[in-house]
Design goal:
3 strands, 2 domains, alpha+beta
């Protein structure tokens, strides 16, 4: 299912083209540390500060960026309260959680 989603989004080649040199650990660290503000992504990987806008990131990675803003939007109300609660319960590993809440990376 994951590979089908990557194919649908146009990201399959990025994760399967090993000569490209994509480090899964570095990508995971990039996304774990990323913050997005006004279209600018800021992150650190191996202690190096990275700042890039969404379009440039798409060019660098050779992937489409359409819809990226939906993944990182700060206003999550589009998902609805029930979905937000289910996500918070799963990510925080607290099935008894009654209200949606932000989950810190270290709590996942």
């Amino acid at each position: 299912m994951f590979l089908d989603k990557l194919k649908a989004q146009g990201w399959f080649e990025l994760f399967t083209n090993t000569p490209m040199g994509c480090s899964q650990l570095d990508v995971a660290e990039f996304y774990a540390n990323v913050t997005v503000s006004e279209g600018l992504l800021t992150s650190t990987v191996n202690g190096v500060l990275i700042e890039v806008d969404v379009r440039a990131l798409g060019v660098i990675l050779g992937v489409p960026v359409t819809g990226f803003d939906l993944y990182v939007r700060e206003d999550k109300s589009l998902l609805g309260k029930a979905k937000l609660l289910a996500l918070a319960q799963n990510l925080s590993q607290q099935p008894g959680l009654k209200q949606p809440q932000a989950v810190k990376r270290g709590d996942m």
